[in-house]
Every structure is written in C-alpha cells, then in structure tokens.
Design brief:
447 residues, alpha/beta, TIM Barrel, 6-stranded antiparallel β-sheet, metal-binding, Alpha-amylase
C-alpha cells in the first residue's frame, strides 16, 4: 500500500489523528438550516419502479410531513466487475458524472432537483470519494490515482472486494475528484454533499481544497459520515454515532438511561454546541446490517425516535422509517419498501418534525438550546432546553418497566403544553411522576 503520507507528495500527513479539540469550529451553514429535517432517500427500494421519476411522486407527501433536505444515496452507475448481488452496491461507483440507468437519466435527476426546490426542499448527493468500482475508467487511464501495494497492484480493504481504494495524497486524484463534484453543482444545482467515510484513508486537506473551491459556486451543505470534531473545520454536520450506539444498547437492555445522559454531556464537551450533530435511530447501513428499529429498540422504538428529535442535533429519517419499516432492506438487490403503514407511524413522525421545527430550543448547534439534565435517575432521562424564551422539557423512561420519579429542579416549575396530547400541564417543584414502560413526555412553554 502506498504510504499514508504520500511518497514524494510534499503534503502533510493528515491521516494521523490530531487532538479532537483542536479543530472545533462553528458550522458555517446559515441559521435557517438549523431546524432542517434530513430525509435519506434509497431510490432503489423507495418505489416498485426504483427510479428517480417514481420517487418524484412522493415529494409532495414528504414536503407536507415537513422534510427540508433530501439526501439521495449514490445515483451513479454501479460497477460490474466483482459486483455484489444482482444490482451491486450503491457505493461502487463506475462513473462519477453519470446517472445509473437503473434509476433513470441525468434529466430525470435535474427535474427532481427543480421540483424539490419549488417545494422549498434542498437536495444533497451522497458522495463516495475514497474508492471506485474496479471498472471505473480511472483504473486503466490513471492507475496512479489509486493506492497500491509493493507490487504495484491496486488494493481494496477488508471484504470490500467490489471497490478499489483511491490515493488522495496524489494531487491529480484530488483535482479529478473536485472536478467531478463540481459537475453536479454546476449542472444539476444540488445543495450539498453527504460524504462517505471522508476521513477514512483520506487527508483532511483534500476537504479544505474541495470546500474552498465548491463553496464559491454555491453556499453548500456539507455532511460528513464521521464522528470526529476535527471534521468541522470543513464540514457543517457530523454523525453522532455514539447516540445511535448507546441508544441501541439501552434498547437491547445492555445499558441504562444514565449512560445516554453521560454520553450527551461528554459529546457536548468534546464538540461544543456550535457544530451540527446528526442524530438518528437508523439509516441505510444500520437498517441493512445491524437490524430494524424494532430489532434494536423493541417496544421503545418511538421513545428513542422522540429522543433523537428533541435532545440535541439535527434529526434525520430514512426511506420507509416514517411508515414503520420492519425489515432489513437488501443492499445489493431489489427489495421494495412496504408503504401500508398499519400502525400509523407517519402521523407520529410528522408530529415529531413539527415539534422540532416549531421550537427554536430544539434546533441544531448553537442555534438551539443546550440540553441540561434535570434529574439523576438510572432509568429515566429528563432534560430541559431553552432558547429565546422557548423552553422544552423532555422526560424519557428508557426502560421496559414502570418508573417513578420526582422533578426536583425548581427552574422547570410552570405551565406547559404537552406536545403529544395538546393538553395543558402544570409542573411543580418536587412533583412526582409515574411513567409506564418506554413512556415519554415532551412539554413546551414560551415566555
């Protein structure tokens, strides 16, 4: 494998992890995006047709739900060489500047972006910068773009046999990749990128070059699939993988609510409140490889979804989640989502979106309020968030048994609206509460 520092490149070795706290910066994205709800779109499985045109018919429904930003999984052609399954992985890119015929045409995608913009939604494209398919033209035309072993053979990682690893210590590789990204901004008017593993075998200085150049074209939104504060020197939002991980362990009965309270406090100390942190209970990887929300959270699935939408960060949904997706979608083959929604999940998620959007205290980054724990309990996590006179109280029983607790924080005494029922409630100092298994309460007041 080519050395990480880039033999003879003269570039700094950014693969060596730096002190996390050295790189904390504020998101440069506008305040109006702090309330955005991100919706990850799996074009292949979203409709029976599995096409961009077919998905466009769902835009108005998503707009009515309150979705602000569409993140489309990769739409480029998928390689045939070493392909996995019948259709291949979305992340094995054969040509960066074309649309997978399975999904439609470039004109179809342009029409999608145009319609989304008419509805007031943004569109960001999933970008795969660190590897290509084995039959990408660069393999034969620009072998020097790729990481190679001592024998000069292009390499892959782990069991990712369908992809070839790129070498971004080569300035020519970086130039070619930025040009490919530039194409989508200039030709289709997208609003940003969700970047796949952007610090995995990739130098941070590549992203400095990319964001500096591409942001001159348009004020783009940059989402990084990484949980490292240093990414925020170039990215607006990063994944809160820890939230997903610890919430799953609680749902499976391996940890208690006190652990997520501890994690959130530590995460804010690590990142500060300025960066946007993406909170989720599922996405394409989690659903396909780790299990559905029902497998991981059991009867607490709605509880953890409500927590993700209120506790901090920028919440997201994945195709089918809003109708109670109860199967692991196949990753390499066709596996259409069932949209029947027998348990009324869409109404539930629409309500969560409304709560997050309408309450400034719940907005992402420094534009929302810091979550402050208002109890010390092993099984119940209760917090308050306040911003510009808007106060939200969240009380979550993160256990499968009834819990009794008292609210002893005098600062939360007052009259509130119960957001899930619409009823008025009064909270007094040392007020006792009895919570059923997995019950949660969201109270709001405006001063």
């Amino acid at each position: 494998m080519t050395s990480c520092g880039g033999s003879g490149s003269g570039e700094p070795n950014e693969y060596v992890k730096v002190d996390d706290n050295e790189a904390i910066v504020e998101s440069t994205y506008p305040e109006k995006a702090a309330s955005d709800i991100i919706y990850e779109v799996n074009i292949r499985q979203h409709t029976p047709e599995g096409t961009i045109k077919a998905f466009m018919n769902d835009l108005e429904r998503l707009d009515k739900m309150g979705v602000d930003m569409l993140w489309l999984m990769p739409i480029q052609p998928i390689g045939f060489k070493n392909r996995k399954g019948s259709l291949g992985s979305y992340y094995s890119i054969q040509d960066y500047s074309k649309v997978n015929p399975e999904f439609g045409t470039l004109e179809d995608f342009k029409a999608l972006v145009e319609k989304a913009h008419e509805l007031g939604m943004k569109v960001i494209l999933d970008w795969v910068p660190n590897h290509t398919a084995w039959d990408h033209p660069w393999i034969t035309e620009h072998k020097d773009y790729y990481a190679q072993n001592d024998k000069g053979e292009v390499i892959y990682e782990a069991d990712w046999t369908d992809i070839a690893l790129l070498d971004h210590t080569n300035p020519a590789t970086r130039r070619a990749m930025i040009d490919e990204m530039k194409f989508w901004v200039e030709e289709t008017d997208i609003d940003g990128f969700r970047c796949d593993h952007p610090l995995h075998e990739m130098p941070l200085y590549f992203w400095e070059e990319a964001t500096d150049e591409l942001d001159q074209l348009k004020d783009l939104f940059w989402l990084a699939e990484v949980d490292e504060p240093r990414a925020h020197t170039e990215f607006d939002a990063t994944y809160s993988w820890g939230f997903k991980g610890i919430s799953t362990e609680i749902g499976e009965g391996h940890k208690k609510a006190s652990e997520i309270a501890k994690y959130i406090d530590e995460d804010i100390k690590r990142y500060g409140m300025k960066p946007f942190r993406l909170t989720m209970t599922t996405n394409h990887d989690v659903n396909s490889w780790e299990g559905t929300v029902f497998e991981r959270y059991g009867e607490g699935d709605k509880t953890f979804a409500a927590l993700a939408f209120t506790v901090y960060g920028a919440p997201m949904l994945y195709s089918g989640q809003e109708v109670g997706l109860d199967k692991r979608l196949k990753f390499f083959d066709k596996d259409t989502i069932d949209w029947s929604d027998p348990k009324g999940y869409e109404e539930f998620y629409t309500k969560l979106i409304e709560i997050h959007t309408d309450n400034v205290a719940l907005h992402a980054g420094e534009f929302g309020g810091m979550p402050i724990q208002i109890n010390k309990d092993e099984n119940v996590y209760a917090f308050k968030r306040e911003k510009d006179g808007n106060q939200v109280i969240g009380i979550f029983n993160l256990s499968d048994s009834e819990q009794n607790m008292n609210l002893t924080d005098a600062s939360v005494a007052g009259t509130y609206k119960d957001e899930m029922t619409g009823k008025e409630v009064n909270i007094t100092v040392d007020q006792p509460l009895k919570l059923d298994a997995w019950e949660y309460l969201i109270f709001v007041s405006n001063k």
